[in-house]
């Protein structure tokens, strides 16, 4: 299926490198390799830090320079990746360009210095939308998206058992890898406990004071933990609509999930789906 940002990425690659960020398992790698001739991970122009042979090439700074486009997947796990990419881009562009993918860690690490300033465009890949499924979406398309979510793998598998297992695995990976590596959190179990309570607070004004009281922690801790969830693409929040005077009186935001299937009731799940579809095109 064609992703809505594909056309813009193709145009941007004519001018600069392109970074693709977004939630874990939202389809960034698949989108990236579709820009390669073979559209396959076996393409020699596709390198991933998670593959030992590719990792050695990256560490030795021996990226191929004979292809018009090189896809670098998860390269931000390499400590010196910014200087490596900058050097190759400055030397070989426009003959060779680079498409770089990563999740929350890419968002953090790309801001770790200004060595890449002015050399790339950034795109965030969102879960699937109705228009990506069908130019003329039907009620059946909406029902399928509502039930199995907008992440490609469970959407295509279309079984509740797989969805449940996939969801647990994704959340565990975010906590055990992304949060543990990127955030200075002393008590990870408290974050996990907080996250488990959020489905019941979905689509309602989010009272940090009430959560703090329930968990017996400070309000500042709760505020920090919610911000971490936002940065890790677990949640996002929407502020009240209106002018400054309205927002001053009604400050509490609503919280939503990037994976709306976490919602345990149909009403909040549908509102979450709509909120994320709107976020995608804002």
From TrEMBL:
Q: Which Pfam families match?
A: AAA_14, DUF4143
- DUF4143 domain span: 176-264
Q: Which UniProt keywords apply?
A: ATP-binding, Nucleotide-binding
Domain AAA, first and last residues per copy? 15-133
InterPro entries xref list: AAA_14 (IPR041682), DUF4143 (IPR025420), P-loop_NTPase (IPR027417)
Q: Transmembrane region positions? A: none
Q: Which GO terms describe its molecular function?
A: ATP binding
Record's superkingdom? Answer: Bacteria
- What is the name of the protein in this document? ATP-binding protein
Q: What is the lineage of its organism?
A: Bacteria, Deltaproteobacteria, SAR324 cluster
